[in-house]
Amino acid sequence: MLIVLARADEELRPGGTDPLRVAGRVAAVVASVVVRAGAGAARVLGVGVSVPGQVDREAGVAAYAPNLGRHDVPLLDLPAEHIPYPLYLDNPLRACTVAELWFGAARGREDAVVVNLGTGVGVGLTLGGGLHRGISNSAGEWGHTTLVPAGRPCHCGGHGCVEAYTGAPGIMRTLRELAPESPLLRPDDQTATIGALADGVAAGDAVALQAVEETARRLGAGIAGLVNLLNREVVVLSSWVAARLGEPLLDGVRRAAAPHALRRPLEATEIVLSPIPTDPVSLGAATFALEGALGSGTAARRAAPTRSRTAPTA
Ligand SMILES: [Zn+2]
Questions:
Q1: Which of 31, 167, 223, 273 is the most exposed place for a label (fewest CB within 10 A)?
Q2: How far does the centroid of ligand 1 lie from the alpha carbon of residue 138, in Å?
């Protein structure tokens, strides 16, 4: 059974993504969480760090984060001065997927696709009950596959990417295109806008319903491609946008996927919302530390963690 002993959230203000400052704040939050958990520092197995974008976990480097516009940040060196625990680095796609494997909808399943819907979009893949990383830890960058040829520009430099329509900024753009003056739009605040959209759907607001339907239509078409390509047992909609938009998004995705997927793989695939009641990225990052401790026994600070095996039994 999973018990969260303590948690703390800190918002990054726009422009507040300087790596050194972020690392300092992370270190302070880790220290406060350890105190509040009352577990004692000696019992902390490690700290998992999840950063968006491409991650070189062996070298501890955030190689490329399109949403933050950064290249080659030596992420594990920055907080290492201040955090006296072994550190494990990866990105939200892998973190969400490991959380689903240990505690969520992929638990006890052979194969799953975890669709991470946040500011960025991507998928985590499991194969035979373990995490599939790909040759350079980059598997699952589905958010930057083309959904609409010559479509919306994407911050990766391409056009018409899945993420440009189904990530939080893309959903905001859809809402703006449908109703530029909509009171649901909160400029520069994607979290508040997605929240207002969810509340609008619950209240039967026509614009909100249309915006979510439009998002689900595109997401469903993309997921149908994953169903055909991968033939997994379950597709899990995870992360904060999926959690906030919930059942209306899921219903729309199921409806939208059907005409685009082949019948046989679709019938074998369940499309579900993540059942994890807490932030799956934080939970997954913490699980990396647990895996590291179980794998090595003597987890050295910043040491290259053992590969994720992640094979809990149901
Ligand atoms: Zn892109």
A1: 31
A2: 14
